[in-house]
Input
Amino acid sequence: MKFQITLDRDEDGIWIAECPAIPGCVSQGPTRAEALANIREAITLCLEVRAERGMPLTLETRQIEVAI
Output
């Protein structure tokens, strides 16, 4: 499976990764590479838990560009 993630840096320099298609699936790391590795693991674990609980695995998300 392939997922879109967001990757941002917080005010302390920590990288925050989130998978919008899986509610609550967020991870972090001190480096970009570590945050990406951590979100991969988080996605796997979140999918396992959602499957065990009979929850939908993902939510439908779309990327939409908004001009201001």
User: Anything to note?
Assistant: The helical segments are 32-52.
